[in-house]
Amino acid sequence: MKYDRRVWGWAFYDWANSAFATVVLAGFFPLLFQDYWSADASAEDANLRLGWANAAASLIIALSAPFLGAIADRSGTRKRLLLLFAIGGMLATGLLAGVPQGSWFAAALLFVCGTVGFLGANLLYDALLVHVAPVERWHAISGLGFGLGYLGGGLLYLGCVIAALKPELFGFSDSTEAALAAFAVTALWWGVFSLPLLLLVPEPAPVGQSGQGSLWRQSGGQVVETLRALPRHQHLLLFLIAYWLYIDGVGTVIRMAVAYGRALEFERSHLILALLLVQFIGFPAAIAFGYLGNRIGPQRGIYIGLVIYTLVCIWGFFIRAPWEFFAIAILIGLVQGGVQALSRSCYARLIPAEQSGQFFGFYNLMGKFAALIGPPLFGLFGAWFGDARYSMLSLIILFAAGGILLSRIPPSAFK
Length: 415
Prior knowledge:
The chain is mostly helical. The chain has 16 helices and no strands.
């Protein structure tokens, strides 16, 4: 299938920002946070600190997302605001390279700032999907974006892993110094590969006319009006609640899997290789899920992913050997990007295109409010039961509840 320059420019931003998702969110930050910045704390306490840091970033975005989206729609500044958040995220990410050992609070603060930049830019990136291609191609294009993200993030992560495993080849004194340098490299990668979106994707026209001084007031009024109207859009509201539940589980797996493996005392190298498996399997799998959504329906594609996630949680509770961690990584790689891609394109079909920024603000609000529950709950289960293994079981409820609510929406709503 051929795509024009707008589609490729849009999709390549996933290649750019997935470096943060892979190297920082899922990879090196959880490892360094536990072993370097929180070396004085137990594994359970370090996981709890990381869970609260993730929750803080998500709360900031959740509270601001609908207003940010409405402002972007009304002012016609989706791209400019996207780049503003992205630049802030890049700067915070680069600064992590200089945080000294034991300074867990400084590391957590920069992590929160970087994550806010990443999530805020993603909100506006998602909203541009409806403006780069016709509706019948959204499932495939959403899958293309996630596929490129997994490939790009995986390639950079592979390079950082090689540097961490063989630091002397790159002029580093040890693996920790190489891992810290990975944050600076990630910031640079994110910036360079954001250029295609900047150059190739046009800025959608603003919705309505508003003066400079009244922009915030009018945007706020639009958000309130939309909130009041949501109960009348039953399918949209039901999807948001279902998404809120199951994407919480997906996001918690992404953010906490490496920390979980470390708590079970698996070697760093095993955890790093497992994450690489997720990335490179996720590249073709996410693209394939986009086409699968067109063939069997996006809901069925999401159900497949949620069933596999539930099996992963059960297996994760009993895991003992490194090979099991690799097998679980393969299963996650097969469905992670697919669930994300089909969720985004499903939602895009339920909303008015001219208000995509605002409505994707609500989409991100639900996703980020979910992250207020998942990572802290993941950490609390381990602390309550005195065993990190119980953390995995907390996620099954989220996948099951989200899938049940999603089944209440007729498939015709997504056509």
